[in-house]
Amino acid sequence: MDARLAYELAELNANMSDVERLVTLHWGLSSVLRANVAGDVVEVGCNAGYTSVWLATTMRALAPERELVLFDSFAGMPPPGELDTHLPEGECLASAEQVEQNFRSRDLPMPRVVAGWFDETLAELPQRICFGYLDGDHYRSIQLSLEQVWPRLEPGGLLVIDDYCDLSRNERAWDGLPGVKKACDEFFAGTDHVVEVVPGTSDLTLGYVYKPTSDGGPR
């Protein structure tokens, strides 16, 4: 793990990330790559690509042959629903050119970048996924992400979901986007899958869920 890069990216992306979040992503991605879980890596909601750079750095060290695929509208947030109380339409605007610049400036291979609204683009997901970072912010965005990514996630694969806030398990977590938890809880309702909560010393708000292996392995 490149600690200096973690601090650099956290400072550059202070409104959307922090060192604890980056360490969690490294832990999650490196764990499935070291376990040789098949498939590629996806980030659904990449913004300007700072966390994408972090994922790519981990992949370069452990599995450079895997593909990293990034999705974003590059038009900011879609119109909010009734549960989306924090980010208005057009917020979090970034560009594919910013993603490219962030990769080129660090001499990283360019990922595949898919621009557009998730309901139009997620059909372009890899057929096999080992790790997914879902950062769609709004209820419908996370709902769409789960509907499309989970069936492609390989057994033993891992999803990390940004803004999943369960104050009963992490009272420090930021609760500004309640639609994320609702979308996840509805999606996994009636199953044995549990979205676990990542603790932190800050207001870190992350959930994660493994897809069980055929022998009932990690979940």
UniProtKB/TrEMBL annotation:
Protein name stated in the entry: O-methyltransferase
PANTHER family, alphabetized: MACROCIN O-METHYLTRANSFERASE (PTHR40036)
InterPro entries listed in its UniProt record: SAM-dependent_MTases_sf, TylF_MeTrfase
